[in-house]
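Continuing the batch. This is chain 6 of the set; chains 1 through 5 are on the previous pages. Same settings as before, nothing changed between runs. Recording input and output for traceability.
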Amino acid sequence: MLELHNVSKSYTGKKALQNINLQIPQGEIIGLFGENSAGKTTMMKCILGLLRYSGKITLDGEPITHKNIARISFATCEHSFFPGLSPKGHKEFYGEHFPKFSEKRFDSLMKFFELPMNKSLSSFSTGQKNQFEVILALSQGADYILMDEPFAGNDIFNREDFYKVLLGILEPNETVFLSTHLIEEVADFIGRAILIHKGEIIGDVSVMDLEEEGKDLVSYIKETYHYRSDRVSKALEELTGEE
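Output for chain 6:
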């Protein structure tokens, strides 16, 4: 179980996370939703120990250190690979440093995305770099796979196919924690939705529970965020109206 206990984080006096309490068991596919600067990336970086924070984050009751950090992987649009190295070089590096690294999954995903094995990552397009970032995160052998806007720069066909492949390859003990703005695309793919607003969790719901109540994820999110459907029309009236 990955747990966050009263986790807070500030940047120059401004709260980015406020008393976050969260339990993430293994075997879930979770969507993390929120506006820009809501705290999604900050939360993931705190889990990984990339940022200092107050509160406590534990994995099966233990602090996250070099002893268990390999159980968590991270796919980020900021990229965490070595740009001068080829995929083949990454495969060898990860195989040496991560005992549970899956060469079979790595090779299969490289083939699925049709990525070259021997070219430097610096020669890849933005979309290809993001695809490779996801491949590394999924092949590391981690129990918790954190993804922060991993599909930026990829077309809708690649994304839809990838969701289907992901559902097919995940093991029962693997958890995907996915931060994305593509709510409609992942609505049928995730089992749980967590909503964050100005550094606070304002919603945490099972998608199955929503369906039993006759609700859909997009409507739930709009309702929770108090989305005003007349916002655009009012703005246009002000912009185009006579003085």
